[in-house]
Design goal:
- It is a single chain.
- The protein is an alpha/beta fold.
- It has ten helices and 20 strands.
- The protein has helices spanning about 45-50, 105-110, 120-130, 145-155, 165-170, 195-205, 220-225, 240-255, 265-270, 365-380, and strands spanning about 10-15, 20-25, 30-40, 55-60, 65, 85, 90, 115, 135-140, 175, 185-190, 205-210, 230, 260, 275-290, 295-310, 315-320, 325-330, 340-345, 350.
- Strands 10, 11, 12, 13, 14, 15, 16, 17, 18, 19 and 20 form an eleven-stranded mixed sheet that branches.
């Protein structure tokens, strides 16, 4: 793969046979993934480095991308994770005092094949009407492959249903981040695709954070002996993460306070005995309205998920897995998708969105404080559930 030139041809092919021709952006070659669209008007560097986008070709609805370049402060993980990148207008000039380089060069360095100069509005409308689908970007000599063969290559790509991607994005070894300020306890963070901002916000709440590989076992968790457990965001199908569900069920039976976000919300749902399902085109962007039933307020949230928990949004439910009473604490105001769960008899809750939201809204940042209070009350013996939070 080599650096893009202005005349290098590229084509985006969708599973339904749709083709969009443009010019190469980033690395040159071939890439396959699930085509999804992201609606954020800012924060493209955070989007690209969010491990939840692993395996996906991301279509940016904002037309102008790359104008602020990239820097060493904003990445949410160690590399770019998207399978491919699709933009309308790639900026040829970087204009920002914080920039350390260009987005084009960063895409090349991380081997990300992209395409520019295509009608991203038309692509987004196609995905909204048809749903997220398999896709491929072909650039340089790969763009010369016959159309019929390209389509067959795309159709033979991985299906996100049944796909476990945690092992591809998780840390290989444990690492620790000490508490900032008054220490309240130790926190085990299962890295399913955790973001830097999440770890920072947790340490700032007084947790000694231990970031652990997704292969962690119940025996290893008990040996570590944390005061609480956290499940991060991440890519893939929650139905393909049985080992993480079993780990969580064991921790809940042991009485560990639990907080999960995004993928962690889906896994809590499965641990409690509910099902999950794939959304037509998911929720991706930094402008998703959510109703918080606990506070009666609307939060504008940052989201990136293609799967959701299957549970009724009204009333108190009984956990099919035997963990007592549960309620849906948050739901989407766009389509009434479950956006949060709260156990009433054990110390566990979760949300489907990203309260760390960098870049994005900070409406839900208070959830880290809610978790902190839950752990303090649990460890002091004054609270055994989330019902009063």
């Amino acid at each position: 793969m080599t650096t893009v030139t202005s005349s290098t041809p590229a084509v985006l092919v969708l599973e339904d046979g749709s083709r969009f021709t443009g010019r190469a952006y980033g690395a040159i070659g071939r890439t396959l993934g699930e085509a999804v669209f992201a609606t954020g008007m800012t924060g493209y560097q955070e989007t690209l480095t969010d491990p939840s986008y692993a395996g996906q070709i991301v279509v940016m609805t904002a037309p102008h991308i790359g104008n602020t370049g990239v820097n060493d402060e904003d990445p949410e993980s160690r590399r770019i994770w998207v399978a491919g990148y699709v933009v309308r207008d790639a900026s040829r000039v970087v204009s920002n005092f914080r920039a350390d380089g260009t987005l084009d060069d960063q895409l090349v360095d991380d081997g990300i094949v992209g395409i520019r100069g295509v009608d991203t509005r038309a692509i987004t409308r196609r995905l909204r009407d048809t749903g997220s689908m398999k896709a491929g970007i072909f650039s340089g000599s790969e763009a010369e492959i016959p159309e019929a063969e390209m389509l067959e290559i795309v159709k033979a790509g991985r299906d996100m249903r049944g796909l476990n991607l945690s092992s591809e994005v998780s840390t290989a070894e444990r690492y620790d981040v000490p508490a900032v300020g008054e220490r309240i306890g130790s926190l085990a963070v299962l890295d399913l695709g955790v973001k830097t901002s999440t770890v920072r916000y947790l340490s700032e709440r007084g947790f000694d954070v231990m970031v652990l590989p997704q292969s962690l076992t119940s025996a290893e968790l008990r040996e570590i002996g944390p005061d609480a457990l956290f499940y991060s965001n991440g890519p893939g199908d929650p139905a393909a993460s049985d080992s993480q569900v079993e780990l969580l069920q064991g921790a809940l039976r042991d009485g560990l306070p639990f907080f999960g976000i995004c993928f962690g919300n889906q896994l809590l749902g499965r641990a409690l005995g509910f099902g999950t399902y794939k959304l037509p085109f998911g929720h991706r962007g930094i402008n998703q309205p959510v109703w918080d039933k606990t506070t009666g307020t609307v939060e504008i949230t940052s989201q990136n998920h293609g799967f959701a928990v299957d549970a009724p949004i009204d009333g108190v439910l009984e956990s099919p897995a035997g963990f007592g009473r549960v309620e849906v604490s948050h739901f989407s105001l766009n389509d009434h998708v479950v956006e949060g769960l709260r156990a009433l008899d054990i110390p566990a809750f979760s949300v489907q969105y990203h309260p760390e939201a960098a870049a994005g809204p900070h409406d839900a940042n208070h959830l880290f404080d809610r978790f902190r209070q839950l752990v303090i009350e649990r460890t002091s013996g004054s609270q055994t559930s989330t019902e009063s939070l």
